[in-house]
Amino acid sequence: MDVVEDPFAPVVKVVTVPMAAGEAFRAFTTGLETWWPFGTHSTAHADRGTVSFGAGVGEEVVEVRPDGGREVWGTVTGWAPPELLTMSWHPGGPPEQATELEVRFSETSDGTRVHLRHTGWEVRDDGAAARARYDAGWDMVLGRYVDSLV
């Protein structure tokens, strides 16, 4: 019997960065615009962008496009530096189709393990397809994050 993968299963990615959890947390959140691949993973698809990353529950994460336009990427739902960030995620999309991100930061002997879990695909009209895109996309995005810190 063939095993059928759940098309809405969480996307889980784990990377390790060579620094303390507090530094890794700051780089992932308020330092995001220094490493995020705006050319491929933003609403403007511009090589350079800016992101306003609200530091606290209820704060928004907002992309500011080169033309001055603003797109909400999501809202922070959990903020516990240096260990945990949770947020809704809907870059340029409607909030009612937001997925959920959970990012945990755990110190190890090699630095900090960053564990990303992306869930909630069933709320999107294109949930299965979006999940497949993000499964590949997070590899590239987290690769940029790691590369910026070594």
From TrEMBL:
InterPro entries: ASHA1/2-like_C (IPR013538), START-like_dom_sf (IPR023393). SUPFAM superfamilies: Bet v1-like (SSF55961). Residues 23-142 form the Activator of Hsp90 ATPase homologue 1/2-like C-terminal domain. It holds the Pfam family AHSA1. It comes from the Bacteria. Gene3D superfamilies: 3.30.530.20. Belongs to the AHA1 family. This is Activator of Hsp90 ATPase-like protein.
